[in-house]
Amino acid sequence: MKITVVGTGYVGLVTGTCLAETGNEVVCVDIDAEKVLKMQNGVVPIYEPHLDVLFERNINADRLKFTTSLDEGLEHGEIIFLALPTPEDEDGSADLSYVLNVSEEIGKKIKTYKVIVDKSTVPVGTAEKVQKVIAANAVCDFDVVSNPEFLREGFAVDDFLKPERIVVGSSSEKATKIMQKLYSPFVRSGNPIIIMDEKSAELTKYAANAFLATKITFMNEIANYCEKVGADVDKVRVGMGTDSRIGKRFLFPGIGYGGSCFPKDVKALQKAGSDSDYDFKILDAVIEVNDTQKTTLLPKIEAYLDNDVSGKKIAIWGLAFKPETDDIREAPSLYMMKALLDKGAHLSVFDPEAMPNIKKMFGDSLNYANSMYEATEGADSLLICTEWSIFRTPNFQKLREQMIRPAIFDGRNLYNLDDMESEGFTYFSVGRKQ
Ligand code: UGA
What we know:
single chain, alpha/beta, N-(1-d-carboxylethyl)-l-norvaline Dehydrogenase, domain 2, Rossmann fold, 3 domains, 6-stranded parallel beta sheet, globular, binds uridine-5'-diphosphate-glucuronic acid, UDP-glucose 6-dehydrogenase activity, 6-PGluconate_DH-like_C_sf, UDP-Glc/GDP-Man_DH_C, NAD(P)-bd_dom_sf, NAD binding
């Protein structure tokens, strides 16, 4: 099939590349000429495991192309994916200007039937708005469907190629059939393509992200309470998670959720609720708890360092909002670093992928180490913000010898409490014995 993807951010790029992988002819459109040139030369503009292999293979097979011309894109595709940004507005709502501006252009330019697919995370009612904006100018038939994505950064290629489910909001039989045909190679395992109305599809995406953010936040509160009463959240987690109604996943406590999706989507749903005269009390609490959770280790670090971190050297391992990505948007590490810098600490940081992005934001205020052990050289404490695999089994003897005070503040509960004691570390984690 002939596909056009408008917007080559994270979602657009993965969508375009994976759709090319099943033999479709894909044209990706982006207004950023520099980025388009890079992609035309085979450079993947983001770090995402396995994407580079698929990218190269499909460019070489001539199935994946890039252009800055929306006209060219609209000429090509029978299905037009909108994978445009929906940033957070000042009031927390989702800014739809990119989606609606492109929709207006689509209305003016299409000459033959197209299915316009909303892939961006958009508030309930957006498909209706897109439909109206296109219809105001369109001279031909078209359908708008909502098709939210459920990709996780770091696993996006796998999630796209083997989705647990595909949600399609559509009120047109013709468009539904086209979408079913497009996605059929991805659901051979029997996983469902769930068809529903557009509004329900739009809400499914927000509800799923808000639920997961709530699940994590609930566990963070249980962890905080564990610390008060001397229980161990890791044991509670396993005890709870084996109940299949609860499930084992997304129960890991830590220093809060971050990233480009959960924080933005929870706020957008809360705002959309209040705009419709509905008060999502649970989301108010989730946002509040997550905000404080990001710096939950700060008072512990201060207390350990004689209530004065100024002039102390603190090493930080892990800066990305989660492992296997270079994305630092809303990363808990940012909040910890800002708070520690404000208090005069010297920070020596290391992350396997996110260092360039952190440098852009923090400039000369940090020491950028070339390895995890360079960061801990002469440190008064080590803070762990992201659970990259390489941090899971460090050389503890080396660490102990290098550090001035062998103390670890672990925001991701990577180590066994007994091991830490026998290795001679003062160890603080989240929701476990301190
Ligand atoms: C999330 C959803 O998982 C995807 O399904 C969705 O498509 C995506 O948002 C999106 O809306 O685009 P992502 O933001 O890539 O994906 O990351 P997650 O793996 O969900 O992690 C989000 C945050 O929750 C991270 O900060 C992570 O550290 C935190 N987390 C996750 C926990 O603190 N505990 C857990 O048990 C799981």
